[in-house]
Amino acid sequence: MALSTIGDNYFAGGRNIVPDPDANKELADLINEMIAQINANESAVGSVGTDDVSNDSGVAGATATAALDQLATDIGALGSDDIANDSGVTGATASAALDTLDARAGTIVDDESLAVAATVTEHRFTATADGVIERFGAKAETAAAAGESCAVDVQINGTTALTAPVTLDDTAGTNYTAGTVDAAANTFTAGDVITVVKTYTAGGTPTPMTDISAPIQARLT
């Protein structure tokens, strides 16, 4: 609804506001300018059609699909040198971040617990793609007795991927012990078989070690 303007001397007389002899703007002039602007704004809003405004209840399927397609295209076209922010991210920094994200996206963790300590070879997985073993370690839920131990190794097609097996003994207690992955022997290809070999040595009393777990962290490349 449009607003109507008021007369120039509407506030004159009884309200003790009289026209200024030097022709400066009066209160009525100011109010009328405000009314004119309000009417202009209302007119502008009223001229907006359904094609100019969209929301969750009114976006056409074709329009939404086109917008999503364009967004996917724009994202796909971004290179590491196109990414920056106010803190000054460089292309190299962005590339490193993207590499880290890619690495995490392909990471798998495999674990299996041996309830009763024994010498055993566990078939963990057959590789479905190329990759690398990144981390490996072992722990026992019940600590080894004196003289008792279990050497734990991760192997690719029967060949160790470590510089040396992880040894759990009475000094390790129930702590997780990390192995050292051999960077020259930790790569596998699709079809390779990854196993964990646990070699147990019995010891003294009071209680034998139990629940020996050995998680493998691998990344598909």
Largest sheet: 7 strands, antiparallel
- CATH topology annotation of the domain at 107-220: Jelly Rolls
Average pLDDT reading: 80
Shape, please?
A: elongated
Query: Got a strand count?
Result: 12
Helix content: 10-25%
Proportion of residues in extended strands: 25-35%
Along the chain, the helix and strand elements come as HHHEEEEEEEEEEEE
Architecture overview:
With 221 residues, this protein is an alpha+beta fold. Among the domains are: 13-46; 107-220, Jelly Rolls, CATH 2.60.120. Helices cover 23% and strands 29% of the residues. It has 3 helices and 12 strands, in the order αααββββββββββββ. The protein has helices at residues 27-46, 61-76, 91-105, and strands spanning 107-110, 113-116, 120-126, 131-142, 149-156, 159-160, 166-169, 177-178, 187-188, 193-201, 210-213, 216-220. The strands form 2 sheets. Strands 1, 2, 4, 8, 9, 11 and 12 form a 7-stranded antiparallel β-sheet that branches.
List the SSEs and their pairings.
Blueprint: H1 27-46, H2 61-76, H3 91-105, E1 107-110, E2 113-116, E3 120-126, E4 131-142, E5 149-156, E6 159-160, E7 166-169, E8 177-178, E9 187-188, E10 193-201, E11 210-213, E12 216-220
Antiparallel strand pairs: 1-12, 2-11, 3-10, 4-8, 4-9, 4-11, 4-12, 5-6, 5-7, 5-10
Question: How would you describe this structure in keywords?
Answer:
5-stranded antiparallel sheet; Jelly Rolls; alpha+beta; 7-stranded antiparallel sheet
In short:
This protein is of the alpha+beta class. The protein is built from three helices and twelve strands.
